[in-house]
Every structure is written in C-alpha cells, then in structure tokens.
Amino acid sequence: MAPDPLTCPELRGASCLVTGGLGFIGSNLALALAAGGARVAVVDALVPHHGGDRRNLDGAAAPIAVTIADIGDRGAMTPLLGEADVVFNVAGQVSHLESMTDPLRDLDLNVRSHLALLELVRELRPGAVVVHTSTRQVYGRPRYLPVDEDHPTAPVDVNGVDKLAAEQLHLLYAAVHDMAISALRLTNVYGPRQSLMRDGLGFLPVFVRRALRGEPIDVYGDGRQLRDCLYVDDVVRALVLAAVTPDSVGQVFNLGHDDALELAEIARIVAAGAGGASEVSLVPWPDDLVRIDIGSFWGDFSKAKRVLGWAPEIGFGAGIAATIAFYREHPWYLSSI
Amino acid sequence: MAPDPLTCPELRGASCLVTGGLGFIGSNLALALAAGGARVAVVDALVPHHGGDRRNLDGAAAPIAVTIADIGDRGAMTPLLGEADVVFNVAGQVSHLESMTDPLRDLDLNVRSHLALLELVRELRPGAVVVHTSTRQVYGRPRYLPVDEDHPTAPVDVNGVDKLAAEQLHLLYAAVHDMAISALRLTNVYGPRQSLMRDGLGFLPVFVRRALRGEPIDVYGDGRQLRDCLYVDDVVRALVLAAVTPDSVGQVFNLGHDDALELAEIARIVAAGAGGASEVSLVPWPDDLVRIDIGSFWGDFSKAKRVLGWAPEIGFGAGIAATIAFYREHPWYLSSI
Question: Closest partner residue to A176 among B119, B176, B292, by Cβ?
C-alpha cells in the first residue's frame, strides 16, 4: 500500500509552471501543487530516454495542463509564462555518462534552453518567482565533508559543468535583472515516478529496479562511498519553500540528509526493503565511470534549514519502503521507459 | 618607432594552429610563432565587431595560412587539426556588455563552439597540445586580493559564466580523455593590434583611443579600482610556455602583474604616454555597467611563475609607450572597425 501523495498548500490559487513536469521530480511536484490547490501547468520536451511520461501525472487531484515543448521555445512558452506566478525549472538532462558521449546535446538541453527560458521570463514575466534545480555534481570531488555552498566548484563531467553554468545564469539574472530567482543543489533523489529501466541515471533507480526483480545488485569499488539520499517528497517541499520564501532570492541552497550512508549499506537497505531476494556484491569500477566518480559526498544543508526552514523528514528506510510499495502498485514502470 | 616584434622560438618547426588568430591576442601570438620558425595556421570566424582583421597579420616573418570559419566547423577544422601539434585556442567573444544584451550568442561563441572544437580535437588529433585562454572574470568580485586560482568562482555576467564553462570543459577533457590541455586566466590585456574603435571591449582600448586623439578620458566611480594590466607580449610568452611545459597539463594558471594600479592612475599614464593632451575625469557609473563591475582586481600568478617559469617582463609605462608608438605607425586602427 503506497503512502498518501504529498500535498503542498503553500501556493493555493497561484499559477505554477513546472518545466520537466512529466519527469521524476517535476511530476511529483506538479501532483503535490495540484493537490494543494495551485493552478498547475507543466511543460516537458519528452526527450526520449529522459524519464518523462504522461502517465506520471495519473491520479492528479485537479487537472494539470500539459504542453510538449522545449523550455526555450518562444511560441510554446509565451502563453504559459504570461500566466505564471511561479516557474519551477526542473527540466534537464540528468545522465552524467550521456553528457560525456554527447556533450553538445547536454549543453543544449542543460544550458542553452535554460538561458533561452530565462530570457523569455525576463521579457514576458519578469516578476515571476523562479526556482532552479541544480545538483551537488557542481562540486566535483569533495575537498571536505559535509560540503557547504562555499565549497569550490570543480565538476568532473560535462553534465556538472553545464548544470553549474545554468545555475550561475539563474543567479546572475536575479542579481543583474532584479528577478526573484533561487536555486537548489540536489543530491541523489529517489522515490515514486523515477525512470527505472535505464542505466546512467544514477545508482538509485538501478538498485530499486534490481531489488524489485530480485536480481543481484552490483556496487562499484569498496562500497564505502557516502551518499546522502533524498526522498522526492522532501525535495518537493524544498522547492515549494524556496518559492514562497522571499529571502531565497539570489541564493543557492544545498539539499542533503543527516543520514549519509555507505553505498553498500544503501544497496542492502534497498534489497531488504524489496524482500531481500537480491544479493549485493562489490565489483570493480568500469573505466568510463571511475573517471567521473566523485568519491564520498555528504551535503551541509544548514543554510536551507536557516533560510527556508527546510530539513528532510523522511529517513532512507521509510523512503525506500514507500518507493517499493509505489512501484509494486504501478508495475508499468518495470516494463517500459 | 615601434619596438621589435616578439619572437618565440620555442616551437620552431612545430605546426601551430591559433584560433581567433586575426584578433588581438591571437594575431600577436601568430606573428611571434611565425617569427620563431613555427608553421602557423590561424582560424577566425571574423565575427563582425569582434576585432578580427586580416591586416593584423601584416608583416608576418613567414606565411601564415588563414581560414575563415567557426572553430566548431568540422569541414573547415578537419584539415587544420590533422596537422596541428599545438592548438592555441584564443577565439572568443570578449564583450561583457554584449554578453548581457545577447546572451545566447555569447553562449554559442564562447561555449558551444569550444565544446565542438574539443570534440574535434579528441576525435581527430587527441595528442595535440591545447592551450585555452580563460579570464579573471570567472572569479567575479574578489573576496581577497591578490586572487589565486583557488579563489571561488562567481561570475557577475554571462560572459564570465560562459568563459568559466569553456575553461572547465577544457580541463575536463584533459582529466577524462588524457589530453594535453591547459588554461590561462588573463587579466586586462593591452598592446598592438587591439580593436580601438568599439566600446564594450574593456577600458584599456578606450583609454588608448581617446589618448591618441587627445580626447577626454572618463573613469567610472572614484577611480580607485585596482587592475593589473598585461602587455600582450607577456601574454604571448605565457601561452607559448604553457604549450611547451608538460607539467601544465590539466592545470589552470592566473596571469597577472605585480604592479596593480588604480584606474585613474592607469588613465593618467595612458594620457601622458600619448602626449598628455587628454584630460582625465571621474564620472558616475552607468547603470548597466555598475551591475557587472567587480571592484578591484589583482591576480596572484605565483603558480605560473612556479610551474611555467613565467613572469611579466613589461611594466605599464613601457608597455603603453610601445602601444602608442605602434598605433601612431598604424593609423588605420583609429579609422576602421
């Protein structure tokens, strides 16, 4: 039995546009906003293999308007932006590996389209609140733990470079053009509505898929790398808090979790949550991945706590239990992309 | 009487490709390499108003092959890269102000084309040495002086965001693809062959133009902002040293000057160097510029000194004297572009 869907009433009556709204985080956000009484529209390019799917919005508490378009497309975005009070800019290419095999595409999707969107917002709806989702990947290999927002940025893959550029452009538009823009740096996120069938989107959906199927789970290296995983509902709450907190403007915030776990432990918890049929093994690093691995990561989110009043509420065991329950109730996630 | 042109013999016999080779720094580099016995080809898109001009290569000591193309153009670049031992990647859009009025164009010229070039080098000539010219603008407003390479990066304009992304991509290709790539962060550069007739390319060419014409020179604000200006020959020597120093691979180096001068003093030296007819005045900041101003800047170049054996050799007074003499001998710089 899956838990109740999240409801975010903070933006009741507001017009909210969610980019990437058919994807993992975007769809969970759109559903929570609609359940809370916001007027919600989503735009999604439905880029093949990026995890976007119209079915992610099934069961919405209120109608959600869906536009299939690139976020930098003037024609498609003009009517959407004309009404938006808040733009949650969640769209993006998230595969680190794909960013290395097709870097120009990653640049176009993660920087160029976002810059075009910023220009459109500046022109058409400069008073809109904008919240951008960035990533801990901008830091590269941590020099110290936990990593705070002042940690040097040194991305180790093209995706990290591009996400950092997009984040900096968002904050720049806040500073230079007096726009109400903030950014959140996410860590590894898991939960319902994540694409499970593709590798290259991070280890969590792979672990969950293999656990659900009772297949063995491979962990690279010694399995001691720390990660502070976030349940998607905690991310959704942070996005909404960033939108409704005036002091967030022009700021970037780490999201993170007090419980930094070792990868091998994460794999064991996922396997156990699905019934324990999966065997967890340590295997050597594949060459193409070890070069863009960052070692241990653990984010300091005290700034988000102080300014946004945000802290994660869901521990890894409980989050995984809810995740497993969701996919058991929605088996199509295991049979398509 | 202009000083002797610089000669760089370190790459004698080597095949050198200079991108942006019809522009300010690129043309000075190409001439110095040709005088030193390298086989030199340049590629330049001759983007209008960017300062590129075929006449910048007048008087070359040996023939320099010129290709007019974007650096990401596969067809044009394939024959050039097939022969290159060293690629000096100097091309770029350098106007901070223009990057704010046409940000997508800045992204295309300063990031997308460079990423396409990196992909072409990786495919066609992965063993070539590549030196990229980055900028102190990646740091934004300094938190401390002098600014070393570990100073946080927080660009204050789109140009800074884009230049940082391009630099990070270059260093990433060194780390991930084992390529011999390094990057230099330049400060304000002046000297022969700089476009004088356009504003928005930094204060130095404006000061020089107005001094040559005996026109008044305006300095924004209180004129106390520090800048460590570099004569172009010192930059050319640094580029060549980066190319021939194996320990530079994967590294970024500040260039800078021990003599950090206040802007008002810089203006007075330029005016005096041209005969003293120009009056120097302090005027209030224009609104569009104050928002992207960074205050004082002074770079710590001890890493370049240690690893490359580089230090600037030309003081500001001597450099300005050589600069003024050059433009007096080449008056077309004051009547075109």
Answer: B292
